[in-house]
Amino acid sequence: xxxxxDTADVDAIRELNDLGMVDGVxxxxxxxxxxxxxxxxxxxxxxxxxxxxVSAEVVALEADAMIAEGRKLAEIADNIAIKLPLTWDGLKAxxxxxxxxxxxxxxxxxSANQALLAAKAGASFISPFIGRxxxxxxxxxxxxxxxxxxxxxxxxxxxxxxxxxxxxxHVQDCARIGADVMTAPPExxxxxxxxxxxxxxxxxxxxxxxxxxxxxx
Length: 217
Ligand code: E4P
Description:
The chain is an alpha/beta fold. It has one domain (about 1-210): TIM Barrel, CATH 3.20.20.70. It has helices at about 10-20, 30-35, 40-50, 65-75, 90-100, 110-120, 130-135, 140-155, 170-175, 185-190, 195-210; strands at about 1-5, 25, 55, 80-85, 105-110, 125-130, 160, 180-185. Helix 6 links the parallel strand 5 (about 105-110) and strand 6. Helix 4 (about 65-75) packs across helix 5 (about 90-100) and helix 8 runs parallel beside helix 9. Bound molecules: erythose-4-phosphate (E4P). The site of erythose-4-phosphate has 11 residues, from helix 7.
């Protein structure tokens, strides 16, 4: 499973990328706001760090304007994935932009039927939002499972990019089900390394090592 990092925080991206944990990046208008940076400038900086797909989201709501914004965002770098909302206009824009050979990430997907439409419109990625479904007492993981089944039934090449990942359990479930990609905030990716038994075991080893009075270096 590929790891995308869901942030516009350049320092966090650089740190995770140096560890080989970043196959791509996703941003959205809320993350751009949080970064306090100009969208074109920060996205360019991210594309200079990461060689995989970097999603940059349009903010227009009408297809022609989405297409114009998407083309402008795509000028930033060759690895831009244009992020479009899963609306009828977003699907129209997806069809045009993917037809031009551009990477498109269709976002804000909350149903398997929406995912089916995005695949038919030529999306490179579909982004089902797990956490936001969980927030309203639905099981986001059921959606990932349904999309996996449907895409496999018909051989769609659109990659399932599990989004709105909030917990380490989400990451594990996505990997088990076979999402192609997951995008998570840096803190969730860091938490994947944590286990209380690792901490406890290390504490014991350190205490016993101190008693040996030995040194390695
Ligand atoms: C994905 O591309 C989105 O930017 C993101 O995963 C949304 O996550 P949230 O629901 O935690 O805001």
